[in-house]
Amino acid sequence: MPAVFADLDTGVDDAMALMYLLASAEVDLVGIASTAGNVSAHQVCRNNRALLELCGRPEIPVSLGSEQPLSIPLRTAEDTHGPAGLGYAELADPTAAPTAHDAAQAWIRAARAHPGELVGLVTGPMTNLALALRADPELPQLLRRLVIMGGSFDYRGNTSPVTEWNIHVDPEAAAEVFAAFGERAEHTGELPLVCGLNITESIVLTPQILARLAAAAGTEAATMSPDDDLGTRSAAGNPLIRVLEDAMRFYFEFHHRQGEGYLAHLHDPFAAAVALDPALVTARPATIDVELHGTLTRGMTVADIAGHWGREPNAAIVVGGAPQATRPLAEVFFDRFIERVGVFLRRLS
Ligand code: BDR
Ligand code: CA
């Protein structure tokens, strides 16, 4: 059973990624880092603990991360994820406390407890992973796999014309992480798999797909549409579907305001699925670096595919579905997501 450590900035889609991990029987979720990003680190930490309690897993340790990026002030995204990070959903205060050690230490402890076995997943800014790498430079050799949701490759940004949110919030941290994985002399494991907007924006959740999830969870599905009053609350019988519908409605409304349609990109749950099963995708080795000085391009992920820099690849960029796949990647992903999370939520109700 793979040991998984998840670093989240929960966040509507991070919450769904967490549920996917919890719903996956093959996973031993050994810990969670709470990273500042979509909302403050304290709020992320509260959201993670509240979600775990709702899902019946309060024993999973949750650690609080740095309140600030490495060298710039924190920028948050309440416009995208709601005032507390979970859209319109309101969760009861968690009872479990965070760990006494911080999120960077949690990374190190998890990797040291499972040398060569740990699968790391980052769906937020890389602040705490960068701090962990500063404290323990052997981390790249200790991890079995690292999957990152971040960046944008041959594709536009979602925060500036060229930057993706997770990298934009802490570009220095992302640069340090990618650099650390380029210096893995004795590393024989996999290259970090990077799920950028180029792939995650193809994972489009619609109200119809959300309704399939509710049905799989054994609850009557809400019919959500852009004609509804803003902030209409879910009446679902299943409390977790209620949370998901209330969270997701805010996310749908955000994407709609942006002119993208009444839908939502499921960046983080997709990265979680890749972390558990890299055979789901095709990835291309590359040397990734982060632009830190450009006046228009700071935070941009630059990928050298052709070897111009003469540097070893430090990552593999996810570029599509499995080579032999006969169905679109999003379809394969959503079938798997609904099957797992639907059964899980049905059991919890
Ligand atoms: C990323 O930004 C966040 O708002 C989402 O949770 C996701 O991790 C997409 O750019
Ligand atoms: Ca996120």
Structure description:
The protein has 349 residues and is of the alpha/beta class. It has a single domain (3-203, 264-348), classed as Alpha-Beta Complex (Inosine-uridine Nucleoside N-ribohydrolase, Chain A), CATH 3.90.245. The chain contains 13 helices and eleven strands. The strands form two sheets. The chain has a nine-stranded mixed sheet, sandwiched between helices. A two-stranded antiparallel ribbon has the order 7-8. Helix 4 packs across helix 5 (127-135).
Which helices and strands appear, and what pairs or packs with what?
Elements: E1 3-8, H1 12-23, E2 28-34, H2 41-54, E3 62-64, H3 78-81, H4 103-113, E4 118-122, H5 127-135, H6 139-142, E5 143-149, H7 165-169, H8 171-180, E6 193-195, H9 197-200, E7 204-205, H10 207-216, H11 239-257, E8 264-265, H12 267-276, E9 281-290, E10 301-304, E11 315-321, H13 329-348
Parallel strand pairs: 1-2, 1-4, 2-3, 4-5, 5-6, 6-11
Antiparallel strand pairs: 7-8, 9-10, 9-11
Bound molecules: beta-D-ribofuranose and calcium ion.
Residues 11, 13-14, 38, 77, 80, 123, 149, 158, 164-166, 267-268 line the site of beta-D-ribofuranose (BDR).
InterPro entries: Inosine/uridine_hydrolase_dom, IUNH, Ribo_hydro-like
GO molecular function: hydrolase activity
Organism: [Mycobacterium] wendilense
CATH architectural category? Alpha-Beta Complex
Question: What's the CATH H-level superfamily name?
Answer: Ribonucleoside hydrolase-like
- Sheet with most strands: 9 strands, mixed
Task: Write out the distinct hetero groups bound to the structure.
Answer: beta-D-ribofuranose, calcium ion
Strand-pairing-aware structural class? alpha/beta
Q: What is the share of helical residues?
A: 25-40%
What is the count of distinct domains? 1
Name the shape in a single word.
globular
Secondary-structure element pattern, one letter each: EHEHEHHEHHEHHEHEHHEHEEEH
Spatial order of the strands forming the largest sheet: 3-2-1-4-5-6-11-9-10
Instruction: Please give the alpha-carbon distance between the first and last residues.
Output: 26 Å
CATH topology: Inosine-uridine Nucleoside N-ribohydrolase, Chain A
What value does the Rg take, in angstroms?
Answer: 19 Å
Could you report the average pLDDT, rounded to the nearest whole number? 96
CATH class: Alpha Beta
Count of runs of 4 or more consecutive helical residues: 13
Number of strands: 11
Strand content: 15-25%
Low-confidence segments? none
